[in-house]
Structures are given as structure tokens and as C-alpha cells.
Design brief:
By secondary structure, the chain is mostly helical. 61% of the residues lie in helices and 0% in strands. The protein binds a DNA duplex (13 and 12 nucleotides) through helix 2, helix 3, helix 6 and helix 8.
Length: 225
DNA sequence: GCCCAGGTGGGTA
DNA sequence: TACCCACATGGG
């Protein structure tokens, strides 16, 4: 099967199995950026806990920017990696202020997609995944965030070459899926990765996509024996 | 107590 | 430039 056809088949089969994902609660681009940085290398529960703690402790992003760094770190501690995330968030808030004169990222909506992506990834702590999340979920821009679930699952489904690394997978998958499918594919692939296609405990017996899965076909003997 | 989740950037070959 | 690893927490 041609790659683009395969991608479309995955999209459609996920829709049949999971349906159209609910739209996530919309955040402002700046809220989404901070929230996504907090989410790096942790789960949604811990991210939300840290984000709410930050909002409770500081009335505005200006207050976070100007706060004592130790206090910011202590506030977001539950998210993990707080000694990195805290200073990086503050540095980003300071840089945005310096570049824009205010703490507001709504202007990114008016930039060409590529330019908005480059603008976000100029900051230390904002990689391809974080930038793509802000673009897709807050700015309605066509970006395809590749997290470890998506990286793993797309490998197994033969949607990318096995040796392709995450940096390469990002533009590859972005080009592979039609823009209008990004939102649903992203959320449904993550759901598949979380619920079924785990790295160490693949539950292939209940996976709805085993007929498209390279991993399954390679290990079928092990699965059926 | 141990295993696991899960992005980014800096260091090293 | 391509890999390897530090970074830290909390839930099961």
C-alpha cells in the first residue's frame, strides 16, 4: 500500500474505532505554551496540577516572569524537572516581553505557519513538539506534534522508516497526513499508544489496526503461539 | 522499593 | 551529525 494511502487508512480506522476526538479546552497561546512546557516528560495529571498551582500562586504571567525563581520552581515541583522548566519558563516570558513589549502571543495567528513555528522554537525549552502543540491546539494552524507515543505507533504502522529519528519524523509525518486530519490523528494515535500499543506491553490482541501493523506481522508467531 | 511515563538540549564520539 | 543521557516527579 502506498504510504499516503496507508496514512489515510490509519486515520479512517482510528475514526471508526475511537470516533472524532473531543476538542480540548482551548487555552490562549501563552497559556498553552507554558502548559506544554510543564507537560514535557510527565503525564497530564501532573502537568495540570503544576499549571493550576502556578495560576493560583501568581495572578498574571508578568508576576511569574518577575517572581523569585526558587518560588516558581517550588510551585511547579509536582510536574518534575522543575529546576529546568521554572527558569526556562521565566526566561521565555522575559524574552517575549523584550521582543513584543507585552506578554501576548495572539499575534502568531497572523504569521505564516512556518514563521510562527520558527518564532516559537527560537526559545530554549521549546522544541518541535511543544511548538506544534501551541500551533495546533491554540492557533488552529496545521502542525503535527510528534510525541513518543506517536513516534512509536507510526513506526509500528509502517508510516515512517524504522531508522528515522524523531527530528526527521516530524516533517515526514506532517507531510504525510492531510492537514485536516492532524487534530483527530494526533489525539487518536496517542490514545492508541496509551491504551493499547504500549512500548513494553503491546496489547495486540485488542488492537483494531493489527492488519496494518508491521510490528504485529513481524511478531505474529510470538503472538499466536 | 521498583518500574514507568515521556521532550529538550548539551555533551561526546 | 548522530547518538546518549541528565533532568525529577508521582502513580501503580
Amino acid at each position: 500500500m502506498e504510504l499516503a494511502q496507508r496514512a489515510l487508512a490509519v486515520y479512517q480506522r482510528l475514526l471508526i474505532h475511537y470516533g472524532h476526538p473531543q476538542w480540548r479546552k482551548r487555552l490562549s497561546p501563552l497559556d498553552e505554551l507554558v502548559s506544554t512546557i510543564l507537560s514535557q516528560n510527565t503525564n497530564d495529571t501532573l502537568r495540570d496540577r503544576a499549571f493550576e498551582a502556578l495560576r493560583r500562586r501568581f495572578p498574571t504571567w508578568e508576576a511569574v516572569r518577575d517572581a523569585d525563581t526558587a518560588e516558581v520552581i517550588a510551585t511547579i515541583q509536582t510536574a518534575g524537572l522543575a529546576h529546568r522548566k521554572g527558569p526556562r519558563i521565566q526566561a521565555i516570558l522575559r524574552q517575549i516581553t523584550a521582543l513584543r513589549g507585552e506578554l501576548n502571543l495572539d499575534f502568531l495567528r497572523e504569521l505564516p505557519d512556518e514563521e510562527a513555528y520558527r518564532w516559537l522554537t527560537q526559545f530554549k525549552g521549546v522544541g518541535p513538539k511543544t511548538a506544534a502543540i501551541v500551533l495546533l491546539f491554540s492557533l488552529d494552524k496545521p502542525a503535527f506534534p510528534v510525541d513518543t507515543h506517536i513516534y512509536r505507533v507510526t513506526g509500528r504502522l509502517g508510516l515512517r522508516a524504522p531508522q528515522m529519528n524523531v527530528e526527521q519524523a516530524h516533517p515526514h509525518l506532517t507531510a504525510l497526513f492531510p492537514k485536516e486530519t492532524y487534530y483527530a490523528v494526533h489525539l487518536n494515535l496517542i490514545r492508541l499508544g496509551r491504551e493499547i500499543c504500549q512500548a513494553r506491553t503491546p496489547r495486540c490482541s485488542i488492537c483494531p489496526l493489527t492488519d496494518l501493523c508491521d510490528y504485529y506481522s513481524k511478531t505474529q508467531q510470538a503472538h499466536t503461539s
